[in-house]
Structures are given as C-alpha cells and as structure tokens.
Amino acid sequence: MENEKFTEVTEFRRRLTTVSLFCEKPADFFIKIKEYMENSEYSKYFSPTYSSVAIDVIPKGFNKFVGMKMIAGQNKIVGIADSMNDFELIAKSDFSFVPSNCSEEIISKLEGCGKEVKNMQGSKSAIKNTVMKSNFPETEGVIEILNFILKGFQG
C-alpha cells in the first residue's frame, strides 16, 4: 500500500499491527480505500476503518475490543470512544461511553444494531447495553465520562 500513490495521504505510518494513512477527509477517503482493499490481494487479510484524522488498515478479526478483551479476560470492559475505528469497542463493551462530538455515523450504526444511545445528563449510573453520551466534546467529554464512572464506583 505504501507504494500506491494516493494523493489524499498527507502522512503514512506503520504501527505494530496497523498501517495509518493520515489525510484531510478520512470519511470520504475511506470509501476509496475500502474499494481498493476489496479489489486487492489484501482483502482476505486486512480491513480498513477510519477516525477523524486517518484511515487505519488492520488485520481482519482484530479491533480495539478484541485487544481489550485479551487484556480484561473475564472482567467487565468499559469503552470510551468517538470514531468509526472504535465501533466494535463501543458496540461490544459491557459499558460504553461517547463524547458529544461522536460521529453521527457511529451513533446511527449503534442504534441500527439495537444499542440505545442515552445522554448522561440526569443519569446516576451506566446502563448495560446502553451507550451513554457525554454533554461535552473531545477531552472535556472524556473527563466528564471518567468522573461519571468514578462517582458510580464511589456510590
């Protein structure tokens, strides 16, 4: 893939198990990369996904949830995320949270697979199989989520 001349790519990074293609409009570029991958020798081994800054090409069968499950074992998993590359983590975690700037596409896809997305405001605790949405975007939203979780443990 590195040898391909995708003019959209502003930076190419190899990581431990993934390749990231940084670009200006990942959601739009994702369509092109997905089509390229489906028609290439890589299609049986890798899948593309994306965030707000890059396209990530990952080995099939692996995602953030799989990684967390390997670490957590039988423990409950709390997922906090905001982009399509986080979808499996949010969809499969025991308790899921998103900041308010979470993409509409991920919200729609979560609702499409039976997940309720509920605003955290007024809630006293996380609800299993419900995605709790922060009142704030980005870092401020993650801080609100972490404080919400901490209060739940303190009673």
Description of the structure:
This protein is 35% helix and 24% strand. α3 links the parallel β5 (78-80) and β6. It has helices at 26-38, 64-72, 87-92, 104-112, 138-154, and strands at residues 9-14, 19-23, 46-50, 54-59, 78-80, 95-98, 116-119, 130-133. With 155 residues, the chain is an alpha/beta fold. The mean pLDDT is 91. The protein contains five helices and eight strands. The strands form two sheets. It has a four-stranded antiparallel sheet with strand order 1-2-4-3. It has two domains: 9-59; 64-154, no CATH class.
Strand content: 15-25%
Number of helices: 5
Count of extended strands: 8
Oligomer: single chain
Radius of gyration: 17 Å
What gross morphology would you assign? globular
Distance between the termini: 51 Å
Low-confidence stretches at least 5 residues in length (pLDDT < 50)? Answer: none
Physical arrangement of strands within the biggest beta sheet: 1-2-4-3
